[in-house]
Amino acid sequence: MGGRFKAAPEDFRVEELPAYLPSGEGEHLFLWVEKRALSTPQVASALAAELRLGEREVSYAGLKDRQAVARQWFCVPARAEEAVRGVDHPQIRVLECKRHRNKLRSGQLKGNRFQIRIRGPLNVGAGGEALERLRRRGLANYFGPQRFGRGRQNAAAGRALLMGEPTRGVDRFQRKLFLSAFQSLLFNRALSARIEGGAFAIARAGDVMQKLDSGGLFVCAEPQVDQPRLDCFEISPAGPMFGPKMMSAAGEVAKVEAELLSQEGMTLADFSGGGGETRGGRRAYRLAVPDCEIAQEGPDAWLCFELPRGTYATALLREVLGARGEPAEELEPL
Length: 334
Prior knowledge:
CATH topology of the largest domain: Pseudouridine synthase
Mean pLDDT: 93
Shape: globular
CATH architecture of the largest domain: 2-Layer Sandwich
Helix content: 25-40%
Distance between the termini: 26 Å
Order of helices and strands: EEEHEEHEEHEHHEEHEHEEEEHE
Number of domains: 2
Radius of gyration: 21 Å
CATH class of the largest domain: Alpha Beta
Strand content: 25-35%
């Protein structure tokens, strides 16, 4: 349907869907924060400064887009409760604070709710048709371009770290980001090869399959048995997030994944150099498309939908907007 998105932070609204809500008791304080035009780590740093805490004392479940208005949970020690009332930052609002027994950790979220303004769409009806096709075919679960940084510099830095090349000034957060970006780039390449080979929605012997409700993994031994489960989005082939703890595929699927590493001049053993940051795992290639509403507002349109954690709104936008759709400017790194 064409159009531009992210022309202004208010055009891209994200609300975190938490895995659980704070109980009201405990040694940790959950902060429901609205941020505007800041990355999640920037907000964490600002909160640490405002509350006179160490940066490691501020945690969050997931990264949210910088060029957006986003609401998400942060967690700080409960001793900062009185100081929270004095937080004064032009791009940060603390909307609620509540105690909990456990610290909020990375990945502890259900998903995200999006409201995205599309400026100047060329054909809103075509967007609806694209969504119908996606509902039948499924959504390719690509990592979004903002994960890789400008010119894919984050992924290049991650490869350098794994290969033992000299790096300077890389802090703990950057190290984790860079290593994950390189794993994510290889996953995207594997997914593209799967689509180009015509097997996006096909079960293959040797595939690692993921149960989409529980995340459980198993190796496909009988494609004719697993294909009906794949057709109804009960399971999906799961691509590689390379690392020593990743469940291995079998047969031809394993050969294809090994060739992907060979093209980089690497082996699976090289990912041991990333320590706990590159243990490895699996990520679903294909997801069911969520309910998505398209509403026109004057010359613009709004897309409203929810996605599970780890899924990028840009993956859906590229399908609905097509080649004529684009961000208003280059996507900022998360």
